[in-house]
Every structure is written in structure tokens, then in C-alpha cells.
Amino acid sequence: MAARPVDDTDKVNALNRLASGFVRKAKYDTAAILARQAILISQKLEYKKGLASGCYYLGQKEQGQGNYSNSMQLYGIALKLRRELHDTGGTAFILSGIGSLHLVANNFTEALKCHLQSLKLFEGIKDSAGTSTAYYNLGIVYYYLSDSKKSHDCYSRAYEICSGRGDRKGAANALLGLGSLHYEEGDFAEANKNYMKALVVQEEIKDIHGLGYSYTCLGLSHSYAGNYVEALVFLNKAVKLRTEMGDIGGLANTYVTMAVCYMKQKKYAQAKLYGEKALVLAADLEDTEDIRGAHEVLSETYEGMGTSDQAIAKKALYHYKQFISLRDSMVNEESTKKIVRLEMNYEFEKKEAATRLEQEKKEAVALAEKKKQKIILLAVSGFGILILGFGIFAYRSYLQKQRANLEITRQKTLIEEKQKEIIDSIHYAKRIQTALLPHDKYLLRTLERLNRS
After folding, report:
1. Cα end-to-end span (Å), the chain
2. What is the DSSP letter of 405?
3. What are the pLDDT digits (tens) for 10-53?
4. How far are the Cα atoms of 333, 379, 386, 389 from residue 383, in angstroms, in the given order?
5. Global pTM?
6. Closest Cα partner for 82 from 40, 116, 54, 112?
């Protein structure tokens, strides 16, 4: 196969980068045009990396517009290509997207598997951005599995990693997750604190998609707290943003929340309007949760309008039956969720145990190194003290030797002086003796004289 032109692969990469940027800005039509161009050129060049990226970004566009089936097919192609390329990071990234689609379909087992696999791969290559995303996604899954403790742990870990690496968007998403947990517990004040912290960051970084979600969350929280005026301010902002970016799934959810807000105020005409809008959009997307929510609020709305009118009573009954049917299916889903939790806790806890073991190993190595350094320090210190002691001993010995030498010198000098005095005395005595004794000639003359006599 001929070498592919460098300029053409650069063009593919540039197109994919642009597509990614437009997806983040929720400019889905532009993103689709760019991604399709990247795919066409990549196919001609047999450029797998470019083709995988193009399919992924086109899949993101489909997901953002609620076309989940198309999105899953595109993600599947991208995943196959990334695995063929042995691209660990790319594989983990696409698994995150597939896991999110399984979650939308309430397929919790597959969603959890995908996100756990993604986490393992990201941690294996020490990708902190991917790791934080995986923890955030796991927080969402555990939230839907009603496991608030694990959800809180995952969101907190995601927030910690994102804050540490300066990822403000990721940190804001984690705050939204933590806010949702407080909302479920009925702690609306704490939920709103987290939502507002996230909102401030999203406004600063111009995260349009995130803002739409935050506005809806704040609207829902204020509605259930009875702050309807504030709730509608946030919900109207959410509708405007989500309409502009074509976020149909998000818009359906916002409409359900608006219907609830109006119904609680007994403004039944507005509640009916938004409830029916939500039902149409949710039905098109086959979003079970929002369909159930729309039927519930419409049932309560028609009941509030009064059952004396036969037509209204029938509608109230119809929506109530639909709600009950969906609620019962959700009860079954809750049973499934419990089974999934029992099945999947082992994997997650095994991972946590492995993480703890790795941390304990690191701590043991650090402790051993610390002990080693302490031993070395003590040995060096002991050797230093020994050398110092030897030096002191040698110096003292030197001083003693010097003193001994001085004493020897003094004694020698003294002896020499005494010796000199003795010799001088002997010489002196000899002189005296010599002076006192008669002369030899005198003695001879005396002896001769005596002999003659």
C-alpha cells in the first residue's frame, strides 16, 4: 500500500479536532459536517485512527440529539478500530460513551461494566483526565442504582482529581452529581449550594450544555422547596439554552420539571401545556423516565382541574394508569438494580481492595526506605562520633606525649647539669689532691737520703 500523504492525514486530524469543539459547544449540525468529511477522507486513506475519531464525534453528535441507536452503532465502529490499533486511551474513552448509552437505556449491568473497564484502562496508563471521567460516570450509575454511598465516593473522587489538575468543567460536573445526591435526600439547601457552585464555573468557561443541565437542576430543587418564582427563572433559562442547542432529551426533562412547578402552583393550563410537550418529546426518544414523569404530572394536573367534567376525568384516569404501569415496571427495574448491585459490587470492591493493597505496598516501601535512611543516618552519625572520639583521643595522646617529651627534656637538662656539676667537682677535687700530694722527684730524693742514712 502506498504511503498516505502527510497533508491529508493532518487535514483529517484537524477536521476531527474542529468536530470535537463544535460537539462541546452543542453545535451539532456543524460538528456532523466536519466529522463526515473526516470519515470520508480517512476511508480513502485507510487511516484507522482518523476514521475512529470521526465515527466517535459523529456518535457524540447523535447522542446529543437523542439518536441513541445511531450513536451506539458509531461508537461500536470506533471501539473496534481503537482496539485494532491497540489504543488503550482511545478504547477507554469510547467505552465511557457506550456506558452512557447503556445507562440511558436503563441497562445498568452493561453501563457499570463499561465504566469499570474504562476506569481500569485509564488508571493503567495514568490518564488523570480519563480517570476522573470514569469516576464521574460511575457516580451516575450508582446514583441510578440507588447506592448513594458509592455514588458519593465516586463523585468526590472525580471532584478531587479534577480540582487537582485544574479541570474546571469536570469539577463542575462532579458538583452537579453531589448536588443531585443532596436533592434525593431532601436537603434542597445543600443541593442548591452545589448546583450554584457548578453554575458559576460553567458560566465562566461558557459550558453551554452544562449550563442547561444546571438550570434544570436548580429549577427542580427550587420547585420542591416551594420557591416557584426562582424555579421558573432557572427553568426558562434552561428551555432557551436547550432549544438553541437542539438538546431534545434535555428539553423533555426540563418540560416535565416546568409542568411540576406550575401544577404545584395550581396553574393547570401551563402545567398541561408543558406536560404534553414533555410527553411528545420523551415518547420520540423512548425515554422511559421522562415518559413516566410526564404521565404522573398530567394525571395530577387533570385531577386538580376537577373530575366533574367527564372528559377531564377520563384523561386523569388514562395518565394515572400509564403512570402506574410505568411505575410498576420501574419497581421491577429496582429489583433488577438490586441484583446488579449484588453482582457488580464484587468487581468494584475487588478494585478498591487492589487499590488499597497498592497503596499499602507504597506505604510499606516508603516506611522501609525511611527506616533504611534512619539506619544510614545513625550509622553515619555513629561513625562520625567514633571518628570524633578517636580524634579527641589522638589529640589528648599528642598533648600527653608533648608534655612527656617536655618532662624528658627537662629531666635530661637537669641530669646534664648535675653531671656537669659532678664532673666539675671531681676535677676540682683532683686539683686539690694534686696540690696537696708531694712531687715525685721530692719523694725520690727523700727515699735516697733515707737509704744512705
Report:
1. 162
2. H
3. 999 999 999 999 988 878 899 999 999 999 999 999 999 999 99
4. 72, 6, 5, 10
5. 0.62
6. 54
Q: What is the pLDDT of residue 431?
A: 62
Three-state secondary-structure class, residue 4: coil
Residue length of the chain: 453
Pairwise pLDDT comparison (288 vs 256), residue with the higher score = 256
* Cα torsion 350, 351, 356, 362: sign: positive
Closest CA to 179 of 200, 161, 205: 200
Let me know: does 222 contact 237? Beta carbons within 8 Å. no
pLDDT tens column, 424-447: 666 655 565 555 555 555 556 655
Whether the Cβ atoms of residue 291 and residue 299 lie closer than 8 Å to each other? no
Give whole-number Cα distances, 17 to 21, 54, 98, 115, in Å.
Answer: 6, 9, 21, 24
CATH 1.25.40.10 fits 1-86, yes or no: yes
For residues 348 and 150, is the Cβ–Cβ distance under 8 A? yes
SS3 187: coil
Domain ranges for the chain: 1-86, 248-333, 417-453
Closest CA to 92 of 65, 51, 131: 131
